[in-house]
């Protein structure tokens, strides 16, 4: 769907992107992660043909990116904004027509979206009369009105209250089910695991990690488990099939230990060792969250 | 191209729909109507008699009796009563006056009595007629043939200033031409400024409201800039057209309502009619369009470089300097010497040409080669500024929080895409 190859972008004072490549497959929800100032917005602007890279290429559905692709892309910038003094209905239609829609089509689809998001009464309102959250909602509609194949969202959830953020999230998922590929940037990791099929991690203009979310997390498994048992506190003499990382006693006479397997032992060996000694409430593998991977990776580079 | 049309349409419609625009369209012709009404009214009051005046003549010399002839609104009639009786009658009628001609009228002053101060028109008419009668009388007394004299006196000579130029002789009409020249200069100066500033404000609005990024993910920055410039320019042309049409109607109405055939207004109008308005209007439109394109591109570049209108000062000054300079020269010096070397040069340099040329054009006599050179340079000039502005604009609209300087702008100019 979208193939980004060896992009370099140099600004006067600094390098925004150095040799970044990534592949977005059709139908994916792709997360572009990284701290502020990593180069995410620069990359997004290149995909939107707002700026051009110094070197490297972008391919859209196998074709080199060109002006014809603009109509296939919907873009919600990080800094939201609409014409303050223009009526909202008219403004949405104008933006959709700039993306190549006819007036009739735009009107029809806008009616559909306004009904769906309960915005019917806004049609004749000016943007400056709407609250910030309402403006964001309107702008989201403007982004997807022309039914783009690729929807690019720069920090889509910032500025939404929790209720509206949930509505927008559901809409994004629905658009994705209907076949749209979604690329969004964020520095909030919680939303990543929930939404993304694949991610790329950008830090200080370099891509330091990319791939499917599950695959990445699995590759970061490090044989760490969480065990909770009830009964007397156990003492370990060094013959157990694991190393204890931390122990925690709870008030109701339960204990939680965080352990790391040693040798070629498996979780079964842990259970076999523990079952005769205590009543096991829970055994759970600890897979690092994206947040932890992110921090680990970033610290590694720094 | 289709997208540029869309942008033009939006820029045009949002502005034309504004209340201020609609109000302005009607205010200016109404002002003209009001002004001409006022002028006509004042002119009428000072020179016209509003009602039928009756002059009773007590002629003690017997030289004038029966020789007065009635003119419009003034009726002369011999009075067969004493002065005191006649004076008493004056109290009842404002339009009545008594003319007392003493027997020895060449030595003793002739007097006219009325309830109110008589109008100048009336006293002038009386003086004229009496002088004519007295002169004729003296001539007859000296045996000069008055009928013969009258035929000689039929000559009526008036002077009109003629200007000799290479193309021929024509009416100079110096006063009205100067006025038209200055008016043209002021008008083009103001309109370049007003509509240029509108473009700039539009760009700043798009930048501060942050819609710019959405738009230029759909169209190229150049298309947006072009669409905005053309859209606002069309608003200007609409306004001018409306003003011209309405003003013509307004002056027609004013002419009908306020002026009688002898009105001095008509005299001024007749002089104005000899000025080639079609030619001036054509030139005005050309210099407005090219001058507007030239300056509004620069204004757009300035708008793109700043975050708010208050920051525009440092860039506005150098841009507006040539305009301001020519404007001041135009209204103070150039209109007195429209063919001086300074005027010629200023009317050829693209940045000053719109104002300088519009001062010269009403005087006529702008050499064809000068006009052609000036016009071609205007076209080259606006293509050049549009090119420069577009390169600054495409970078500037995405720059926030950076205090732009001229050095910075130069850097932007050389940025690759």
Note the topology.
The complex is a heterodimer of chains A (302) and B (417).
Chain A: E1 2-10, E2 15-24, E3 29-33, H1 40-47, E4 55-60, E5 63-64, E6 73-76, H2 88-98, H3 103-116, H4 132-144, E7 150-154, H5 162-177, E8 181-186, H6 190-195, E9 198-203, E10 206-212, H7 213-219, E11 224-230, E12 242-249, E13 254-261, H8 267-274, E14 279-285, H9 290-301
Parallel strand pairs in A: 3-8, 3-9, 6-7, 7-8
Antiparallel strand pairs in A: 1-2, 1-4, 4-5, 9-10, 11-13, 11-14, 12-13
Helix pairs in contact in A: 2-3, 2-4
Chain B: H1 2-16, H2 19-47, E1 53-59, E2 74-78, H3 83-90, E3 96-101, E4 111-114, H4 120-141, H5 146-152, E5 162-165, E6 168-171, H6 174-208, H7 212-216, H8 221-258, H9 264-273, H10 277-305, H11 313-332, H12 341-346, H13 353-360, H14 368-396, H15 406-414
Parallel strand pairs in B: 1-2, 1-3
Antiparallel strand pairs in B: 3-4, 5-6
Helix pairs in contact in B: 1-8, 2-8, 6-8, 6-10, 6-11, 6-13, 8-10, 10-13, 10-14, 11-13, 14-15
